[in-house]
Write a structure and sequence with these properties.
Elements (H helix, E strand, L loop, with lengths): L6 H13 L21 E5 L2 E4 L4 E4 L14 H13 L8 H13 L5 E5 L2 H16 L3 E5 L25 E4 L4 H11 L3 E7 L14 H14 L2 E5 L22 E4 L10 E5 L4 H6 L10 H16 L2 H22 L4 E4 L6 E4 L6 H12 L2 E2 L14 H19 L6
The structure holds 4'-deoxy-4'-aminopyridoxal-5'-phosphate.
Length: about 400
């Protein structure tokens, strides 16, 4: 195995440790990644990524979602650059805000209006605030283990979070209608909203697509109680279906939170809403210094036009099938027991009998050494810049990686 050069990454980590608590926050901390993984990156182009030491990878994390069309997509960059020359954060929004809002209302099936923010958490939190304002009720139901952001009302960690912050949050089990009914009943006449992800994409677990019955039950229970159905599209949005991830079921939310992919890497989030929530959305105070930034909005207009024109979800589906089938075949060839789950556009690959992720980490380290950036626990992402050759390159690398896993000593 060729060990990757890591001198610059190590030096940056040492410097960061002195000026950033623990050296890095959250999921991007090197301690949360397999040992060979870099923490610092220098550059991206299309579906290719270079780390701080100049090692090059075909990237299957796509910036954890935002890279949807490929880094430096010419149409997106041109639109962003044109706007940058005019101005970005001014005393108010540019014309482009209206263009983008119109385009989103035209694209997203349930949307009658739009509000913009910066991060996915801004969007999910704005949805919750609007739902409470509209209903005058307090309880929010979310799926156990789901991620909607790292702020007190929903953070996966309780460090620094008070019981009062969570007083009106309760959980149900994704795809489990009985548990949802129970949670709805327990909320009594104080239910403001049910928030649900497009599919179950919990960290470190097999991913689960919603059943049609579950999607229908979420809608039915919200309709029966007057609660707001909030769809968290932050991660899956536009990768599965341009009009909304539950369109194939014919189920539409009342509010949806979007971010990651909508501006191809520029910082932007949006809440889309149904007509009956327009008044509440106009009454709540939700704002931020950078929320009207015009460059990311210009990037989003270009991104959405390309997604629609090039039928990007279809392209991702074909690439995803190639990857999934290829990995399955290689796993069989090398005697590995793996489970692939979730939509093929956002693949997750876990090993059987791997509670401590020893096999997953060894596999990903070996992939990385062959120039492929996979993730052992989180769902991965495809982007429109991936080519069938990139997938073939990754599959070739997987032969080496599966052989490394096969040679691991048996766990004690
Ligand atoms: N919801 C989901 C489903 C997410 O995946 C994320 C980010 N991983 C968020 C919300 C929060 O988004 P952000 O990190 O941009 O605040």
């Amino acid at each position: 195995m060729t060990a990757l050069e890591r001198a610059k990454d190590a030096a940056l980590r040492a410097r960061a440790l002195k000026v950033v608590p623990t050296g890095m926050w959250g999921h991007l901390h090197a301690a949360k990644l397999p040992s060979a993984y870099p923490q610092f990156f220098a550059r991206g182009d299309g579906a290719t990524l270079w780390d701080a030491d100049g090692n090059r990878y075909v990237d299957f994390m796509c910036s954890w979602g935002p890279n949807m069309l490929g880094h430096h997509h010419p149409e997106v960059e041109e639109a962003a650059e044109r706007q940058r020359r005019l101005g970005d954060v001014l005393n108010g929004p540019g014309e482009v805000m209206v263009d983008l809002a119109e385009l989103l209302v035209d694209t997203v099936a349930h949307a009658d209006w739009v509000l913009f923010q910066k991060n996915g958490t801004d969007a999910t939190t704005t949805c919750v605030t609007i739902a409470r304002a509209a209903t005058g009720k307090r309880k929010i139901l979310m799926a156990k283990g789901a991620y909607h952001g790292a702020v007190p009302w929903c953070s996966p960690s309780l460090v620094g979070v008070t019981a009062e912050d969570r007083a009106h949050l309760a959980t149900y089990v994704f795809n489990d209608i009985a548990s949802l009914e129970e949670a709805v009943q327990a909320a009594g006449d104080d239910l403001a909203a049910v928030i649900v992800s497009a599919y179950r994409h919990d960290y470190g677990f097999d991913q689960e697509l919603p059943t049609a019955e579950f999607a229908q039950a979420v809608r039915r229970l919200c309709d029966r109680t007057g609660a707001v159905l909030i769809m968290d599209e932050v991660r899956a949005g536009f990768r599965l279906h341009v009009a909304g991830s539950w369109e194939p079921f014919g189920i539409r939310p009342d509010l949806a939170a979007w971010s990651k992919a909508i501006a191809n890497g520029y910082a932007l989030a949006a809440v889309t809403g149904a007509e009956w929530l327009r008044d509440a959305a106009g009454r709540v105070t939700v704002t931020g210094s950078f929320w009207a930034g015009a460059v990311s909005m210009a990037a989003a207009v270009a991104t959405l036009k390309v997604i629609r024109r090039d039928k990007v979800p279809d392209r991702l589906l074909a690439l995803g099938n190639q990857l999934r089938e290829g990995l399955d075949a290689r796993a069989r060839q090398f005697g590995a027991s793996i489970r692939q789950s979730g939509p093929v556009q956002m693949p997750t690959m876990l090993f059987d009998d791997d509670a401590d992720f020893r096999k997953g980490y060894a596999f990903c380290n070996a992939m990385l050494e062959r120039g492929v950036y996979f993730h052992p626990k989180h769902n991965m992402f495809l982007c429109a810049a991936h080519t069938p050759e990139d997938i073939a390159f990754a599959l070739d690398a997987s032969e080496h990686a599966f052989s490394v896993v096969a040679a691991l000593p048996t766990a004690a």
